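Table S7 (text form). Paired inputs.
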Amino acid sequence: MGLEFGQMFRRFGSEVTIVQTRPRLMTREDDDVSDEVAAILRDDGITVLTSAMPERVEEVGGGRVRLTVRTRDGERQVEGSHLLSATGRVPNTEALALAAAGIRLRENGFIEVDEYLETSVPGVYAMGDVKGGPAFTHLSYDDYRILRANLLGGEKATTRDRIVPYTVFIDPQLGRIGMTERQAREQDRAVRVAKLPMSAVIRALETGETRGFMKVVIDAHTQQILGAAVLGVEGGEIMTIIQVAMLGKLPCTAMANAIFTHPLLAEGLNSLFMMLDD
């Protein structure tokens, strides 16, 4: 959210500084993805400070504020008209008196549910952001589909093993699905990784936006797609094609050999997956 708003206001004409306490901007992503996002933002004229710990905020007059941060190079001050604190959200469960109904909460205030979205009280369910997990609209809608199937259709749909995509709506977009390379290696999986710069995608060249890359992680034994990151023009749309392949359990060879229309962005998937050829 902070990156999306930061880039938006930069394009409105504001001077923007992004302050991140950790060494990289996007800690859930692979390092190469995070580093490329930071490079894109800097290319847009945004100042990116990492390993920077906020110390204090002061009013300096004229409706302006001064943020003091501690960096590896010492103390630094940033002045501006507005300060956006993008530090996450908490659930509004304290006013629901859930303890009176015997509904358990997790330590962080989210409602505890099982894989069927049922709370600790039989017959009472919770869906969407209030149960915790990624706060995505499309995930809340999938929660609804699960409850509809089970309560109205008598099915046994669950949240187990569902593949949750997301897109960071910076420009160009970052579309993500499945495991990162780091997650796969932490699980000691034998993996193969292919990476294609957007500058090698013909449609990206035609549009004039060649920043970013496509990256895919493959199980070396089964040839199944474990995850992908598409940082580039319409990255979320391209990621979704890979997601559909994962849902259909297609091997990576199917993507390498598929016929995609020339010169669409999707055509770049041919080149990406062909990089896995022995």
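Next pair, protein 2 of 2.
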Amino acid sequence: MPEQHYEPEPAVAGAAVGGTVDVGVEEAGTLKERPKGRGGSGPRDKPRSLWSDAWRDLRRNPVFIVSGLVVLFLLFVSLWPSAIAPGSPLKCDLARAQEGARPGHPFGFDGQGCDVYTRTVHGARTSVTVGVLATLGVAVLGSVLGALAGFFGGVWDAVLSRVTDVFFAVPVVLGGLVLLSVVTSDTVWPVIGFIVLLGWPQIFRIARGSVLTVTRNDYVQAARALGASPARLMLRHIAPNAVAPVIVVATIALGTYIALEATLSYLGVGLRPPSVSWGIDISAASPYVRNAPHALLWPSGALAVTVLAFIMLGDAVRDALDPKLR
């Protein structure tokens, strides 16, 4: 019998238009093994994390860029106010009281003859310092207590949850009037301590809920089954994946705390003279707003821009870190 020669069947590969084409065996293997990258060639793209995706989205968000630039400028002014306002905010001349703008004094003078521009610039240091330090204190205290309550549960969760309910029942402004009225210190620490005292329950609830959600994930259960200690579970697996909501809420709350400091200073129970604060200047300029509106306009405008910048920054961070919005 004559020998029969069998040719290898051609492999079938998908065409770009959705059909199929016949290719050889070697070509099919090449197509199968070719790494998928940009343009169908090159190394495979590494999987991106939540933080890398968030940073990529933030760089493309004009709200984040604008608010970030404003916040960076405010931080620069807070650290080096003399760089753009070399005068002393406590140097006043009663002969120039309530005068308008003039060369060298673009914002005019207040009721005591102090340069409004200099006091507005130097007032940023106090307001931003109170906001940043209070936010750090609230975030650390609320996150630690919330993580303990969410991770251990039981008595820890029940006791801390009831304590937070008590603090939520205290009105913030009324609490400030009662607690800060008996403090005689002229520094920022009593105001920071008061904000931390009444602000941590909000972060506590956010951190507790986030930890409870992350704890139910499979990778946490697998690590626990493999014998990971509670400290390793919390620091290695839970905390990095539960911290995003805390960062978002803390960023938005920073602007709120700056407004709260100005409110307390306006009411006379926050910072007191000779401290330089936007709340103090707004309070001092209120009685003669008709005669010298500029003395009220500039510190009020600086406060509004600062609070708005931090709130916009927090909104942009929230949009970038929330997977549901992708």
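Residues 8-43 have pLDDT under 50 and may be disordered.
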